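notes to self, project folder thing:

trying the whole complex as one job this time. last attempt i did each chain seperately and stitching them together was a nightmare. two parts in total, labels are on each line so i dont mix them up again. if this works i'll redo the older ones the same way
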Amino acid sequence: MNMCEAVSDRMPAVASGRGEWTAAERGHLAGCAECLAEWKLVSVAAMLGRDVTVDAAGLTPRVLERVHEARRADQRSRWVRASAVAGGLAIAALLLLVVVPRTRTTAPVQPAVGVVVPEAPDLQLAELDGAAPAELEMVLVEFDEPTVPVSSLDGPDLEGLDMSQVERALRSWEES
Amino acid sequence: MVAMTQSEPLTDASLAAAWRTGDEGAAAEIVRRHAGAVARFLYSAGAGRSDVDDLVQEALFRGFRKLDTWRGEASLRSWLCCIAGNLLKDEYRRQRGRQVVSIEDDQVVDASNPHEEAAANESEARLRAGLLTLPRLQREVFLMRAQQGCEYGDIAAALGSTPGAARVHYHHAVKRLKELMS
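result (full assembly):
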């Protein structure tokens, strides 16, 4: 480090009053125009704004109040975020409970091949509260009797048919 | 409350640690130590005299909000000056490039002052005007070094740079200011 750099590095300390020039440094400044010009700059900079003051005692409560308010706002926003997440999870859970089972039950049920699903009997029941036991008995007997064939196996007897006849019979059933 | 004695003042790191645990006395001491320096830095970097109070409050507010991130690599003062510099930049952008500061009446040399004081005032006004023409980094490094007395390593830590780069910024600023002041 040459003398110019050494003097330059010492300038802020001397300008702020935290140090003093040595005789050698003072002698260098007297003979080096570049260092002298820098020293003038630094000494002016050290004094710049010296008359700008702030009321630290009054400033502290204002700053701290803002810090506390910001912390409260942070807590509120954390609570809102947590609530939003919890609400989202609750909605998701509700959808899983309600929508998913419904979509499962609404899927079309394919009847087994060869099985005819009987139509439900159109039960148009009269008011039975006032019916006599015999009339009720008759109604129940009527329910017990099958109204439609319960199986496609109640078709014509296929025994004794060869394969081509069976094929034709099956095709005719399908077309019907 | 932080216990402070005349012989052994607490370090900024101790005060920051005390503040993190909720000690408001430590916060008051931090403000007392650094608010004036931050005010001078802001004024010298271009803040209007009438804006300095609000800007210092905002800089300290931001500083306390982020104090958990201060690890002590840079001094607390240079770290706060760095926050103040960013604040001034934000303010400048917010005003869409309008000059944040104008040379105010109280900076105009008063003819009734003694000659030396008038000359000093004139030098300060010229330096301040010159600082405003520098790139932001050069201006801030110069002020941290020449006005605040920070070491290059300290400035570099605050700005996220290297001591060598800080030194280069400082010397560029000095060269430019010499030209403007001569």
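what i see at first glance: The interface with chain A takes residues 24, 27-28, 31-32, 35-36, 39-41, 43-44, 49, 52-53, 56-57, 60-61, 64-65, 120, 123-124, 127-128, 142-143, 145-150, 174, 177-178, 181-182 of chain B (CB under 8 Å).
need to look closer tmrw
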